[in-house]
C-alpha cells in the first residue's frame, strides 16, 4: 500500500530540470552520467495478428467445411463477392493459400474464366486461418475465430471488354480445397460477368486478434550508494548499481526501464508525503547497452532537494520498473541539515 501511494503521489511533477553546478554531477569514470530523460509511461497496445494455430493442427478438407456468401459489393466496374467458411465436423483444421475456383452457370456448365489475382488486395500478411467446428456463418455478422473469408471478383461493365464479348451468369462456385475435395456453393446470379478480365480470387483469411507482446525481461537487482547527510535546497548526488542476476543478458537499450525516486520524511512505511523530486524518468540506457549475466552497471543520480524541505531524517526511495509500473525498489536513510 505504501508503494502504491508513492506512485500516485509521484505523478505531480515530471518536467526535466537542469543540473545545478553544486550537484556534484561531474562525470565519474566507469559510471553512466545522470540525464533527466522523459520516460514512456504507456505500455504498448497489443498488436493485431492472425489467430495462432495449435501445434499439430491438420489442413482442412472439403468434407470438414461449409460456406455461404456473406457480402456483395460493387466498385470500379467490378463485383466483389465475400465467401465465409466454417468447420462442421471433426476438430480444428486450417486453410492456407489461394484456392483454385471454378464457376458454373445454372445448367452446370463450366464458365471459361481465367483465374487471376484479386482486383484489390487486403494488405494483410498472409497466414494460415484456423477453422473450428461451429454454427454456419451468418451474413451481417463479423468474422469470428474459427472461420475464414475468401473473396472473388469479376468485371461487370462491358466497356472493359471487346464489343463481341457477351456477359455470362454465374450460379455456383466450386472451391478446390488445397488438402482435398471440392466445396460447391451457390453464389448470387447478378450482376452478369464479363470474361475478358478473368476471375479474381483472394487467399483464405482468418480474423485478426490482439496478440499479447512478450513479457518484459526480469529487472536487475538494485543497490545504492547514498551519502548519509544532505543539505536542504542542495542537490543530493548518489549512485545506483544494477546487477543482472539472471542467466540471460539484459539489453537496456532495447527496452529501457522507468525509474522513480522520492524523498520521504521518516521511514517508508509511516513517513509523510514525499518531497518534490524527479518522480518518473527513464534511465540513461544508451551508454549502458547490455548487462551480461552476473555483470553490473552503475548510474549516477541526482535528487534535487527542495529549498522548503524541513531538516530531519528522510528515506530516499529508488524504484525500477517498465512503463508506469514500479515493481522493484531500494531505499536508504538520509539526514537533511
SSE diagram, text form:
Blueprint: H1 2-9, E1 47-50, E2 65-75, E3 78-87, E4 93-95, E5 100-104, E6 115-116, E7 129-131, E8 147-155, E9 172-176, E10 182-186, E11 199-201, E12 208-211, E13 221-225, E14 229-230, E15 235-243, E16 250-251, E17 258-265, E18 279-282, H2 285-288, E19 290-291, E20 296-304, E21 312-322, E22 325-336
Textual characterization of the structure:
With 337 residues, the chain is mainly beta. It folds into two domains: 2-41 and 215-336, Immunoglobulin-like (Sandwich); 62-207. It has helices spanning 2-9, 285-288, and strands at residues 47-50, 65-75, 78-87, 93-95, 100-104, 115-116, 129-131, 147-155, 172-176, 182-186, 199-201, 208-211, 221-225, 229-230, 235-243, 250-251, 258-265, 279-282, 290-291, 296-304, 312-322, 325-336. It is elongated, with a radius of gyration of 32 Å.
**CATH class category label of the largest domain:** Mainly Beta
SSE string: HEEEEEEEEEEEEEEEEEEHEEEE
Helix fraction, binned, reads under 10%
Q: Over the alpha carbons, how many angstroms does the gyration radius reach? A: 32 Å
Mean pLDDT comes to 86
Determine the CATH topology of the largest domain: Immunoglobulin-like
In the CATH hierarchy, what is the architecture of the largest domain at level 2?
Answer: Sandwich
Strand order of the largest sheet: 2-3-8-11-6
Summarize this structure as a short list of keywords or feature phrases.
337 residues, mainly beta, Immunoglobulin-like, 2 domains, 5-stranded mixed beta sheet, 22 strands, 4% helix, disordered N terminus
Amino acid at each position: 500500500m505504501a508503494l502504491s501511494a508513492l506512485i500516485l503521489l509521484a505523478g505531480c511533477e515530471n518536467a526535466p530540470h537542469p543540473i545545478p553546478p553544486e550537484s556534484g554531477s561531474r562525470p565519474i569514470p566507469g559510471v553512466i552520467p545522470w540525464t533527466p530523460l522523459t520516460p514512456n509511461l504507456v505500455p504498448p497496445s497489443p498488436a493485431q495478428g492472425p489467430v495462432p494455430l495449435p501445434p499439430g493442427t491438420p489442413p482442412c478438407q472439403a468434407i470438414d467445411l461449409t460456406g455461404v456468401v456473406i457480402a456483395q459489393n460493387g466498385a470500379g466496374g467490378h463485383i466483389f463477392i465475400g465467401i465465409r467458411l466454417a468447420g462442421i465436423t471433426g476438430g480444428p483444421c486450417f486453410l492456407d493459400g489461394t484456392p483454385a475456383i471454378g464457376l458454373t452457370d445454372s445448367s452446370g456448365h463450366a464458365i471459361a474464366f481465367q483465374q487471376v489475382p484479386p482486383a484489390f488486395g487486403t494488405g494483410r500478411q498472409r497466414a494460415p486461418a484456423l477453422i473450428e467446428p461451429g454454427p454456419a456463418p451468418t451474413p451481417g455478422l463479423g468474422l469470428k475465430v474459427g472461420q475464414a473469408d475468401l473473396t472473388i471478383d469479376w468485371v461487370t461493365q462491358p466497356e472493359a471488354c471487346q464489343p463481341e464479348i457477351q456477359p455470362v451468369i454465374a450460379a455456383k462456385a466450386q472451391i478446390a480445397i488445397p488438402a482435398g475435395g471440392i466445396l460447391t456453393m451457390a453464389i448470387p446470379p447478378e450482376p452478369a460477368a464479363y470474361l475478358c478480365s478473368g476471375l479474381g480470387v483472394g487467399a483464405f483469411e482468418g480474423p485478426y486478434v490482439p496478440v499479447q507482446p512478450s513479457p518484459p525481461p526480469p529487472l536487475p537487482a538494485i543497490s545504492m550508494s547514498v551519502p548519509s547527510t544532505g543539505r536542504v535546497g542542495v542537490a543530493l548526488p548518489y549512485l545506483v548499481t544494477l546487477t543482472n542476476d539472471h542467466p540471460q543478458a539484459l539489453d537496456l537499450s532495447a527496452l529501457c526501464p522507468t525509474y522513480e525516486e522520492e524523498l520521504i520524511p521518516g521511514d517508508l512505511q509511516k513517513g509523510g508525503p514525499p518531497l518534490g523530486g524527479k518522480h518518473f524518468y527513464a534511465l540513461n540506457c544508451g551508454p549502458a547497452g547490455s548487462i551480461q549475466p552476473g555483470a553490473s552497471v552503475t548510474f549516477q543520480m541526482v535528487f534535487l532537494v527542495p529549498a522548503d524541505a524541513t531538516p530531519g531524517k528522510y528515506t530516499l526511495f529508488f524504484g525500477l520498473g517498465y512503463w508506469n509500473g514500479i515493481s522493484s525498489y531500494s531505499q536508504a536513510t538520509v539526514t537533511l541539515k
